[in-house]
């Protein structure tokens, strides 16, 4: 149900359960967690992508699994729902969305670092329509990603946001025609991978911390990150490549 493949320095995770609208069951959750483990452990992989098969990105939790008493299997100890939404990781992950991303599917998207979506995509947290709450991060990540009142409308009505509106408000980084989300996400990953991977990871960590930490803490984090990078081989490669007028060859160490 989860496919994991390497494309150069990119690790592509594909939810492959189109017959069930890529809904998350225990196998999907454990598969995503294992794929993130592989991404994090492989020194040759610098950026991850989460994509899906079929015409729905992810419909959220598998309601059949919940009704049969298997709700606990939809999350993992380290990753939370889908083995992903609470997962600590160091490498950027891009969501490639080509179809509706609803409920837990939207929360997977919100847990990613960047989003590429096709024009047929929709994003929503419709849990209130079933007397539930979006408990996998949607209720606080969505207001961080788009304006408060827009997020409140989506949360209280349960109605989805179109891809165009999501792009307008900044939830989506790049909007592309149907069928092109994955290829566009790969192109975005390659743009990231043109940069020094250790610097990218340190930069990601500080940008994420900016939502929760004060400036004093962020100054310390920035200085500490620079100090660590000074000790790396890639730090020497950057100016050397500039002087030699050639593209840098990063090693990730």
What secondary-structure arrangement, pairings included, does this model have?
Elements lengths: L1 E6 L2 E6 L10 H16 L5 E6 L10 H5 L7 E2 L3 E2 L11 E5 L2 E3 L1 H8 L2 E5 L3 E3 L13 H8 L2 H10 L3 E2 H6 L5 E3 L4 H13 L3 H13 L5 H16 L2 H11 L10
Parallel strand pairs: 2-3, 3-6, 6-8, 7-9, 8-11
Antiparallel strand pairs: 1-2, 4-5, 9-10
Helix pairs in contact: 3-4, 4-5, 8-9
Structural notes for this entry:
This protein is an alpha/beta fold and 253 residues long. The protein has two domains: 2-193, 2-enoyl-CoA Hydratase, Chain A, domain 1; 197-243. The chain is built from ten helices and eleven strands. The protein has helices at 26-41, 63-67, 104-111, 138-145, 148-157, 163-168, 181-193, 197-209, 215-230, 233-243, and strands at residues 2-7, 10-15, 47-52, 75-76, 80-81, 93-97, 100-102, 114-118, 122-124, 161-162, 174-176. A six-stranded mixed β-sheet has the order 1-2-3-6-8-11, sandwiched between helices. Helix 3 (104-111) crosses helix 4 (138-145) and helix 8 (197-209) packs antiparallel against helix 9 (215-230). The model has no long low-confidence stretch (mean pLDDT 95).
């Amino acid at each position: 149900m989860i496919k994991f493949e390497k494309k150069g320095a990119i690790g592509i995770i594909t939810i492959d359960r189109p017959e069930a609208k890529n809904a998350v069951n225990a196998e999907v959750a454990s598969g995503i967690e294992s794929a993130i483990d592989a991404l994090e452990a492989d020194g040759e992989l610098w950026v991850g992508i989460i994509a899906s098969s079929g015409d729905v990105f992810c419909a959220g939790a598998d309601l059949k699994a919940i009704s049969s008493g298997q709700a606990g299997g939809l999350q993992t100890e380290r990753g939370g729902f889908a083995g992903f939404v609470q997962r600590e990781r160091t490498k950027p992950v891009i969501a490639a969305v080509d179809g509706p991303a609803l409920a837990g599917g939207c929360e997977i998207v919100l847990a990613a670092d960047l989003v590429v979506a096709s024009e047929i995509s929709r994003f929503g947290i419709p849990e209130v329509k079933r007397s539930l709450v979006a408990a996998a991060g949607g209720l606080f990540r969505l207001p961080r990603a788009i304006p408060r009142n827009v997020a409140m409308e989506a949360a209280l009505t349960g109605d989805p946001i179109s891809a165009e509106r999501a792009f307008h408000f900044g939830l989506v980084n790049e909007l592309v025609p149907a069928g092109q989300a994955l290829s566009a996400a790969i192109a975005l990953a390659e743009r990231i991978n043109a940069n020094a991977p250790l610097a990218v990871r340190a930069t990601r960590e500080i940008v994420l911390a900016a939502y929760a930490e004060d400036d004093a803490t962020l100054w310390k984090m920035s200085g500490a990150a620079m100090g660590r990078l000074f000790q790396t081989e890639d730090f020497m490669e950057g100016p050397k490549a500039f002087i030699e007028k050639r593209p840098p060859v990063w090693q990730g160490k």
